[in-house]
Amino acid sequence: MAIVAFDLKDLQKANRSKEKLEDVLTRIGVEVEELSKEEIKVNITPNRPDLLDFVGLSRAIEHFTGARPKDSFYKIENKPALTINATGQIKSVRPFIAGMIVKNANLSGNRLKYLINFTEKFAETYGRKRKKIAIGVHNLSAIEGNLTYEAAKEGKITPLGSKKSMAFDRVMKEHAKGVTYQDTVPNYGSKSVLYPVLKDEKKTIALIPITNCEETKVTEKTKDLFIDITSTSQISIRNSAAVIACSFLYAGAEVHPVGITYDRQGEEIPKLEYQEVKVAMNRAERTIGIITGRHNVIDLANRMGYTAAKYGPNVLFYVPPYRIDVLDEQDIVEDIAIAYGYDRIIPLAISGVSVGMSNEATDYENKLASAMVGLGYTEAINSILTNEEMNFKNMRTTSKQKDYAMIAESKTNAITMLRTVILPGILQDLSASANATMPQRIFEIGRTFTVKNGKIKESKRLAIASEHAKADFSEIKSVVEAILRYMEGSYKIENDNDATFIQGRCARVTLDGKVSAVFGEVHPEVLRNFGIEEPVVAAEIILKEE
Amino acid sequence: MHEYEARVLGLLAKNKSVSLEEIEESTGLGKDSIFWAVESLSKAGAVSVKKEGAKLVQVSEEGKRYKKEFPEEALIGRLKAAKKEKISSIKDQIALGWAKRNNWVKMQEGSVSLTDEGTKALGKEYQQRALLSELDSMEGMDVNDILEKNKEVATALMKRNLISIKQKTTIREVAITKLGSDLVSKIPKDLGIGALTKDLIKGSEWKTKPFRPYDINAPTEASYPARPHPVREFINVIRQKWFEMGFIEVEGPIIESAFWNFDALFSPQDHPTRDMQDTFFLSNPKQLTIEDIELMNNVREMHLAGWKESWSEELARSAVLRTHTTSVSARYMKKLAKAMESTFPTRMFSIGSVFRNESIDYKHIAELRQYDGIIVGDNLTLANLIYTLKSFYSKLGLDDVRMRPSYFPFTEPSIEFFYYDNERDTTVELCGGGIIRKEITKAMGLNKTVLAWGGGVDRLLLNQKIFGVESLPLLYKNDIAWLRARGNIKV
B186 and B111 in one domain? Predict the structure, then answer.
């Protein structure tokens, strides 16, 4: 999701009221995040990068409220007036480039700001933080001669906003954008780093995907632009070029293609092609569950920017080139549903019954929880996410790293692994409940995880703890035996020496021949580790193990 | 005079002045009863009470970890070596916030570097850490003086939830007054029959002798029943609603391959939610096996055709903590495709934990619960989906549920259900859903239409009509006092 802000007055043309604007936006699937006196902030879903653009969003509103361009509105008839020669090792760094020349662009008022915001957000979302797509906007008149796209070991550029020419590695270290986007340059930080650069015949006009040069900076008065798009993916670069070209064409500017040569293989970009998608006449109605009629279906599609041809059992829809999200008819059907209005769809019961059925394991957990509540224990639910200190050290136990599930990267050092036992969690709960009256009796039913031979082993367990001045071994033994009787099986209780418990006051249970519980009086050091002041007796019972 | 008052006064008649412990020992009364009796006698002027107030400190788990080093100290330590770090790469915003507040760092052009003060701080003991260590060694003791002396730093520690302070008032000494002494003589020798005993019942004394009336307004200790956790109670409510609507309950793995969590659901491999920033990946085990090779090949084809970019099996095998329970629905779709005999429509739901790589604070937690469901059949429509979910929410008492367009890689059309919260003047998302893309059902070999949805369990508990808990971290704090006294699930 990306949030974009516009001045309210810019989107309120034709005396559209604030309420009406909000309503239209909501109905076309654009969530209004904030609406103040002067400004509107909207949330654009990742499938519609074309709406990040002021022109794109205005176009969607205009289509929805009635105006639409003719079938073949988006086309490029001009010939390339400029060439970019992609050469050398650029292929292994950031292989793809596209360019276009825009003439008679209107960048007055807020338009320049919107254009820059659009290209930035586009590169941030669709372009995966510039890794996949980066866009540069230049003043055409400051470009001297044809362009070369290459990978350079070193070089100099006067970065945007700066007065002095700087070496590339300095830009990476000192310029804000250089610092932010360091990881978009492959091998940055090593000696073999190669910077993707775009040069005209006199200077470096862009250090990609970091910054343009100051010399080609665009102002509100600039009319003629050169735009470069670079990428690691060929399909993304075509899509991006189409979205940008359509935006300028819709706003009334001229778009001229740029010739690209990759080692003598030539290509012209942008190419604007209408995707043709056939939709069975009643398919939309049957998917949405409405009856509205053929003409209405086509009219609804028109309001989402599609044009229709060929009537018959199938309708042929022309998908405008900026709709890079449309894969097939499903996407068009969705747009018809959106134009129809989700709130207008009449809910319809499904014919055909089925019988509900519960999951046995959940039922068993519920029964066990009832039994524990009956014994006077209150239930806790803790997260399976924990850390080594809590899970092992506080419990006076250890484990080899290969034996438990570890988290690769987390935002907090409180989360480094998945719990192998439940008990630490409820001991932590007792510690956090110091103000509640004693006795405090608590239990949790949940999953724990270990790793054996590189494979996850999940088990379902019940942990029990009781804290009060007179808590002792016989109390917990009595509760554990009550649960064992409930679990129905033949069990044996033997001495155990689990370091979490006091030696000589700790027992292990084997149920039908398998170790299934440990219980006893919790060791004072463990209590100290958790900040618990009164005696605690506890048990951990394995209910099911893989 | 109440029996408890009489007992306390009787003791004081002998001893003049006693401590709380002595009263407890001699009268055999509980603390609450003694407090009440002493308070009542003191109001009547029969005794004088000396009270004692203490401030007890508790250092939180986080606080204990900070004893070694505060995150802002770690940050400036790193900056000393690196000179500069870009703001966007600093994960710990709290550390950055404090380093800034302490004037240890400055921010310029998107990067952070040390100030002179920051360099000086490197050699000095950090005030917050010094106080924290001192307080940690004084758990259970009165720390009033220390807190008074270091007010500002102590407030900071409290705000950061590194320490918590409890006020404790207790009775130190109770002495009898002249009025009290006079009252002692007026305590009748025989108050009547007290507690009923086995012997009394057998005997006949009760036929002639009066029962001593009890003060029915005297306070008693509160009793709270042991209870299941509200989340369990509410999940059972939700399960019940799905059963009523003909749904089968299913469960699935929490540790899931990226394949089932993302790829099988048509989520592109470079999608931002597949970043380590948002999803928990495991480093042990790093990879899981994908058992169904045919399905994997179908999914690969689906990605190549749809996204027109390369698809990596290695990425698909990464072990992740599932980010939604839709993975359970995906597995069930495949199961249905393989099953020889299934009757349609089939309705299935699952409820379980899902995970987001969040920094945990008063607003965010990393493990939440979700319900997911699918209906599989022929000729199912968006109108059917709307009917199903509106019925479900109406069973939970939410009648003004509305719909808006949305986007998920695996559904087309996609829809979001929400309601308008008048109190907070905002819309609250209930669930997202839609019709599963036919690319996905095709890859699974399931020649049916699938309606699907998923929504948060926990956030429904924030709703006043359902439960009305203030925040999700509170819901999972497991404070026993709260669990005992909490309100009921209202649906």
Answer: no
B480 in contact with A, Cβ within 8 Å: yes
Residues of A in contact with B234 (CB under 8 A): none
Query: What residues in A contact B308, CB-CB < 8 Å?
Result: 235
List all residues 6 or more positions away from B155 whose beta carbon is below 8 Å from its beta carbon: none
Topology given in CATH for the domain delimited by A360-545: BirA Bifunctional Protein; domain 2 (3.30.930)
Residue of A nearest to B241 (CA): A356
Q: Can you tell me the distance from the alpha carbon of A133 to that of A115, in angstroms, rounded to the nearest whole number?
A: 16
The shortest CB-CB distance from B86 to any of A179, A286, A451 is to A179
Chain position carrying tokens 């041809």: A309
- Nearest-angstrom CA–CA distance, A76 and A82: 15
Residues B198 and B49 in one domain: yes
pLDDT at site A15: 60
Find all residues with CB under 8 Å of B459, minimum gap 6, and list them: B368, B428, B472
Instruction: Provide, as residue numbers in chain A, all residues whose Cβ is less than 8 Å from the Cβ of B248.
Output: 354, 356-357
Q: Which residues of A touch B250 (CB under 8 A)?
A: 359
Question: Is B403 within the bounds of a domain?
Answer: yes
In percent, how much of chain A has pLDDT > 90?
Answer: 67
Selected residue of B69, B282, B458, B484 to mutate for chain A interface (largest A Cβ count, 10 A)? B282
Query: A456-465, B399-408, B446-455 — which is least confidently predicted?
Result: B399-408
User: pLDDT tens digits, residue range B362-384?
Assistant: 667 899 999 999 999 999 999 99
Alpha-carbon distances of B364 from A252, B185, B480, rounded to whole Å = 47, 63, 21
Q: How far is A145 from chain B (nearest CA, A)?
A: 33
Residues of A in contact with B435 (CB under 8 A): 287
Name the range with the highest mean pLDDT among A62-66, A182-186, A249-253, B76-80. Answer: A249-253
Beta partners for residue B352, in sequence order: B370
Architecture of the structural domain at A275-344: 2-Layer Sandwich (3.30)
CATH of domain A83-269: 3.50.40.10
Q: Are A249 and A101 in contact (CB under 8 A)?
A: no
Q: Do domains A2-65 and A83-269 have the same CATH topology?
A: no
Chain B nearest-CA distance from A224, in A, is 30
**What tens digit of pLDDT does each residue of A410-422 get?**
888 889 999 999 9
Determine, yes or no, domain membership for B490: no
B438, part of any domain: yes
A358 vs B384: CB contact, 8 Å cut-off? no
Give A511 to chain B, closest Cα distance, Å. Answer: 26
Which ipTM score applies to this complex? 0.91
- Number of inter-chain CB pairs under 8 A, A vs B: 270
Q: Is the per-residue pLDDT at A217 higher than 90?
A: yes
Mean local confidence (pLDDT), B151-169:
87
* Cα A463 to Cα A485: distance, rounded to the nearest angstrom: 16
Structural domain includes residue B228: no
Dist. CA A186–CA A173, nearest whole Å:
15
pLDDT digit string, tens, across residues A8-25: 988 887 667 888 888 889
Pairing of strands A455-467, A417-418: unpaired
**Looking at A417-426, A462-471, B25-34, B322-331, which range is the least confident one?**
B25-34
Q: Can you give the pTM of this predicted structure?
A: 0.81
Q: What whole-number distance in Å separates Cα of residue A30 and Cα of residue A51?
A: 9
**Do B266 and B389 belong together in one domain?**
yes
Those of residues 77-136 in B touching chain A at CB distance below 8 A are: 84, 86, 88, 91-92, 109-111
